Amino acid sequence: MGCDGGTIPRRDELVKTKKKPEQKDKDSERLYRWRHCAASQTRLKAPIVACEMGRLYNKEEVLTRLLDRSADASMSHIKGLKDIKELNLTRNPGFKQEGANKGDAYTDHQAAEYICPVTSLEMNGKYRFSFIWSCGCVLSERALKEVKSEVCHKCAKPYVEEDVVPLNPSEEEQDAVRACMLSRRVAAKAAKKAKKEAKRSAEGEEEEVAAGTSKGKKAAKISEDTGAGTSKSTVRVNGLASAVLRDKDFEKVRSNGFSVASDPKASEVYKSLFDTHKTAQKKQSAHWVTCNPQYF
Predict the structure, then answer these.
(1) CA separation (Å) from 44 to 83, 112, 286?
(2) Is the pTM for the entire model greater than 0.85?
């Protein structure tokens, strides 16, 4: 009836122990983070974007949530398109989509869809990857450390060390990544403000130059008008002075007994206009300018 063949029970059969909680499969969790959107938990598909915290998103999902303003806690730091960057990824030529094989071949579920363009390391979470914020290229951390350069290894655009953002950082790195995000935003805001001030100062200088040019033209015009007015007034004054001098000379000559009738240079027609002419003395009517008092 049992226990007659030398059966020895084990301890777990005699003593009831408390079961340990179910442990997560670390490999499955790691692959899930690198293959699914951090907001909608759906499979990542191009175009793929990343935020300054290093989280991966589907661009369509981010745009939808920004338009609906229904961003959750994982997207609280994303206020607009300037806070995300579309990634420039390198496809893995050996990757096969799930369901592509017919069951007669081995499927490597650890294979990644994207790789590093320099070291060919797969982007499946086993190796650390980062992207450059200025251009969006994704590279492995090994490539960035071993091949020191001031330009991107994929697109050859220049970048600085502060532009390198780690993808899917660990919990211990969250604070450092957030601090880098805030410092990057402050620097971008300061650069934008300086650019606006420089543009405003340049526009002010152009306005001052234009105003100075217009003032110079106005002053030149005023000086020309003043010069013309001065010349005209000078001519007018000179003419008046000449007339006054002529009047004075005439009065002086007349006071000395000079008469137009005795002027040898004057014509008879001109002399006939004056009452000193002999024809004017014999007229029975008044003079054409004034009345002759000898007829009253």
Answers:
(1) 19, 12, 123
(2) no
